[in-house]
Amino acid sequence: MTTAEFSCPGCNQTIEVNDEMRETILEVGCPVCTTAVSPDDFAEA
């Protein structure tokens, strides 16, 4: 399972996520502030 670092463009929160979490965040937005996100907001950890 790979991990990535998610950086929210809305609240600037940064968290490490796995593949399943990444897909969920892409569907529903940031888990902290619900800002819509794109694949560009993830970097390989």
Tell me briefly what this model is.
With 45 residues, the protein is α+β, with helices and mostly antiparallel strands. 22% of the residues lie in helices and 29% in strands. Strands 2-1-3 form a three-stranded antiparallel beta sheet.
Defining traits:
single chain; globular; 45 residues; three-stranded antiparallel beta sheet; alpha+beta
How are the SSEs placed, and which strands pair?
Layout: E1 3-7, E2 14-18, H1 19-28, E3 42-44
Antiparallel strand pairs: 1-2, 1-3
Supply the number of helical segments. 1
The separation of the N and C termini measures: 12 Å
**Series of secondary-structure elements, N-terminal to C-terminal:** EEHE
The averaged pLDDT comes out at 96
The side-by-side strand order for the widest beta sheet comes to 2-1-3
Question: How many strand segments?
Answer: 3
Outline type? globular
Class by SSE composition: alpha+beta
Largest sheet: 3 strands, antiparallel
What percent of the residues sit in helical stretches (DSSP H or I)? 10-25%
Strand content: 25-35%
> Any low-confidence stretches, pLDDT <50, length ≥5?
none
- Rg calculated over all Cα atoms: 9 Å
